[in-house]
Amino acid sequence: MILRFLSLAMLLFVTLPAHATLNIEIIGAGEHQIPISIVPFAGEGKLAQSISAVIVNDLKRSGLFRPVDPAGRAPHEPQEVKFSEWAGVDALAIGSVVQGADGRVDVKFRLFDTLKQIELTGQAVSAKSDQIRAIAHHIADLIYEKFTGDAGVFSTRIAYINREGKANRLVVADSDGYGEQTVLSLNDSIMSPAWSPDGSHLAYVTFEQGHAVTYVQSLLMRQRMVLAAFPGSNSAPAWSPDGKQLAIVLTRDGSSQIYLIRPDGSGLKRITFSDAIDTEPSFSPDGQFLLFTSDRGGSAQVYRMSVDGGYAERLTFEGTNNFSPRYSPDGKGFVFMHSNGKQFLIATQDFETRQMQILTDVGWEKKPSFAPNGKLVLFATEAQGRGILATVSSDGRVKQKMFPQRGDIREPTWGPFLK
Amino acid sequence: MKKLIISVLLVNLLAACASEKPKEVAPEPTAATSSAAPAAEASSANAAAAVAGDALNDAGNALLSKRSAYFPFDVDAVQAADKPMVQAHGEYLGKNAARKVTVEGNCDERGSSEYNLGLGNRRANNVKKMLVAGGAKAAQVGTVSFGEEKPKAVGHDEAAWSQNRRADLNYGK
Questions:
Q1: What's the complex ipTM?
Q2: Which of residues 78-107 of B touch A (CB under 8 A)?
Q3: Is some CB atom of chain B closer than 8 A to the CB atom of A263?
Q4: Do A233 and B30 touch (CB under 8 A)?
Q5: Which residues pair with A344 in a beta bridge?
Q6: Residue A226 to residue B31, Cβ atoms within 8 A
Q7: CA-nearest residue of chain A to B117?
Q8: Does B8 touch chain A if contact means CB atoms closer than 8 Å?
């Protein structure tokens, strides 16, 4: 399973140079940070990219680890590890890289629990030399999972719009901002990118036909097709968890209403019947419910209904308006954009307690989406007069800003685990 | 010492993966039937604009020379101040059956981009209703929403926002 996971990620980025596209700034830390030493891998000095540096940065960004400098200690094989030398760190990772004559690299990696004095896991991966970052993210995911119990998201990807004047690019990048890949370039607006559940396709909205039209594009084949181009706006695509249908918003019958449609554009079925704006659908992880934004009660609020339509229950009552709901991966709550009349903030709400927790404080935050492990929320905000990406841990403790090299970033969305 | 998992060479995986690639489906026929067709409207409007004595081109016409209706925040109803202008355009369209117009609904950047796309649609639809009530035939009036995507003014303040909460009557120039 792990090997398949690696193979897909690498296939997508096989020809890309690994250059930084985002500058990252981290604020805050988790309550309990795990001290960990990542020993520079034997032989990695000959590579264009240090493996251990990528692992260190990944773990640091999570807010849950505190990387400790190995200070000259340099074991590379298990027999060289002396646990007595590692007082003060809970975890130790070592490894080695061998470059083959065919341009491939063989990476070996081992992880130790220095308190229990045991080896936790080890792996060997063979890959092309331009896939070093993907291997490092994979190793960081293994470490994260072993020590937190949650799946790591360092190998996952994000999508967003980069806008410079009239030029809009739909971009896919690694979750750390590297490996940026332009999926679509237009001199017109692009909105609402949405990942298919297997990460192979993006649905999105453009105005290139003069009105909002929704497309579905394959990231593997680069082909795209029109999903919906009815009269009026065709927007807000959201995939069902099984990938067999999308919820979409059309104005062809008057105001914005939610419909279901298959990925090939067939089987259109209207599921909301209001005079209001019903938009921004988000499927529950079990595929049975939709959250959406509606102003049917007089102001924009978050509602929940069955995918079969019918009664919709209002869920948000705080502030003046609430928009852009997205289910948490465990289905127990949702993240959304909360407005108090002056600011737009990212907040979460639990279905059972109905308690709202505000996670941000700047006041110009939009379009939240959960990392697939539910531990981080990605959103768009502003800093230094520019549109930037940001993340916040779902407990609100760790915040990260990611500055693009050029232009403004908007409409971010975090991709799924690649299975 | 625990086991060291040795992986299969990636090249094999790539081959396996390529054979499992998702099937592409042909675009459905309705796909290309875009409703807005702004290019066609533009050319017919140009033809009409060439007619001498067209009231639309009279800069001295206080109502027809205006082409924009403005809205308060999160409101889609045409405001009293803009009603005479919209009604005058409705009468004009009623008298000039060859003319076509597209009403473009716009919003300020507050709220979500998708909600604003819906709000711009309602603003455009309400202007269209008033044009039709004033004498235009429904077929003469197209609508489109740009939501918050095409702001006229840039800035996070009311001065910019008030310019962007707008419906424009676009005769194709």
A1: 0.91
A2: none
A3: yes
A4: no
A5: A339, A364
A6: yes
A7: A233
A8: yes
For residue B7, the chain A residues in CB contact (below 8 A) are 3, 123-126
- The whole-model pTM stands at 0.86
Chain A residues within 8 A of B75 when measuring between CB atoms: none
Task: Transcribe chain B into DSSP letters.
Answer: ----EEPPPHHHHHHHHHHTPPPP-PPPGGGG--S--HHHHHHHHHHHHTSTT-GGG-TT-TTTT--EEE--TT--SPPGGGHHHHHHHHHHHHH-TT--EEEEEE--SSS-HHHHHHHHHHHHHHHHHHHHHTT--GGGEEEEEEETSS-SS-SSSHHHHHHHSEEEEE---
Q: Identify the H or E element spanning A294.
A: strand A289-294
Q: How far apart are CA A195 and CA A203, in angstroms?
A: 7
* Tens digits of residue pLDDT in A88-132: 999 999 999 998 878 889 999 999 999 999 999 999 998 888 889
CATH of domain A31-148: 3.40.50.10070
Domain A157-414, CATH number (from 2.60.40.1250, 2.40.50.140, 3.40.50.1970, 2.120.10.30): 2.120.10.30
